[in-house]
Every structure is written in C-alpha cells, then in structure tokens.
Amino acid sequence: PSPSTFTRQIGNKGSGADLARHLLDRFELHDVKVEQTEGGDHYDPQARAVRLTAGNYAGQSLTAITVAAHEVGHALQHARGEALFETRQRLVGAALKGEHVAGIMLVAAPLLLALTRVPQVGALVMLIGVGSMALGTLVHLVTLPVELDASYGKALPILQDGNYLHEGDLPHARKILKAAALTYVAGSLASLLNLGRWMAVLRR
C-alpha cells in the first residue's frame, strides 16, 4: 500500500505492528518478520525480526507508531550493511565472549591464588575483568550513534516524509525518540564512570 493509504489506516485501525510490516515491505525487506515479545522492543539481526512489546505491537498510539519505525530503522541499517551497525554487532559478540571468560577467571581466581600463592594472579584476574568491562563500555559508546541514526536518520524522516503522522504529532514523536536516546546516553555515561573507577583501582 502507498504511504497515503496507510496514513488513513492509522487513523482507524493501524497498529505498531501494521506500520512495521508496511514499512518493511515498502523497503523490500519482505524476509524480516514482525513479532510480539516480552523482551523489550528491539530488532534481532540473527533472526531478522522486528520485535515489539504487546503495547507497541497491537497499540495504535503515537508511541507505538514511533517505536515501530525506530526498530524498522535498525532493520534498514542491517540490510544496507551500515558500518556502525556492523561494528556494533561484532563488538557485542566479542563482549559476550569477554564476559564469559572474565566470569570464569573471577570464579577460578581464589583457587589459582591458593594453588600458586602468586599475588600477581589476583592482579591478572582483575585486569581481565576490567578489560571485559572496557569492551562493554565500547559497545555502549558505539550503540549510541546507531540508536540516534535509527531514530533521527531513519524513523523520523520516514514518518515525516511519508505523511504517517497526524497533524501536530511530529514534535511529540521527536520527544519520544529523544527520551529513548537519553536512556542510551545515561547508560553510556554510567558505563564510562564505572570503568573509570576500576581503572583508578588498577593504578593504585
């Protein structure tokens, strides 16, 4: 359907899931699924699925429409092979492996220290833990521009240019996207502060 057709549907019965499916088909991403989830709104690149929470999947609110467009933005980043998106995916994989290794080392540290009686073992384990934390912080920092692009480089222009919103809704859609972006900013700052504290401990 054309953008104008879907605009009329939003006024009557269009939901977040309806818009997501419409936009994916519009950009010829027919193989990307739209699914309901309890795990938070997100795009899963492995499953190639836009997943929306119940309220945004079936809901017809401005929030539901805006969130759906944002997650479709991630699907577009993936389909186009955009560098930041691909970098983030690689870093997430590395961070998960790093957390696994760090977890094993932290559990094994007391035993290793008891067996070897070498104080440097504890320092090595702490260094590995901080290294894993640094990788997680890097994921946060790369995630921020990826999220901003999905919101302001993809979702907002799509909603605006395609005339998917009612008159006067655009400023509110911006506020919804800004509020979501601020959560990632806060997460990045918290991760940086936490890493900084551990780096200070290592320097002592």
Task: Describe what this molecule looks like in 3D.
With 204 residues, the protein is mainly alpha-helical. Helix content is 75%, strand content 6%. The longest helix is centred in the C-terminal third of the chain and has 42 residues. It is elongated.
Report how far the terminal alpha carbons are from each other: 64 Å
Strand order within the widest beta sheet: 1-3-2
Helical residue percent?
over 70%
Strand content: 5-15%
SSE sequence, one letter per element? HHEEEHHHHH
Low-confidence stretches: none
Radius of gyration: 21 Å
Structural class from helices and strands?
mainly alpha
Number of helices: 7
Quick one: how many beta strands? 3
Large-scale geometry: elongated
Biggest β-sheet: count, sense, barrel? 3 strands, mixed
Spell out the blueprint of helices and strands.
Blueprint: H1 3-12, H2 16-26, E1 33-37, E2 42-44, E3 49-53, H3 54-58, H4 62-79, H5 83-116, H6 120-161, H7 170-203
Parallel strand pairs: 1-3
Antiparallel strand pairs: 2-3
Helix pairs in contact: 2-4, 4-6, 4-7, 5-6, 6-7
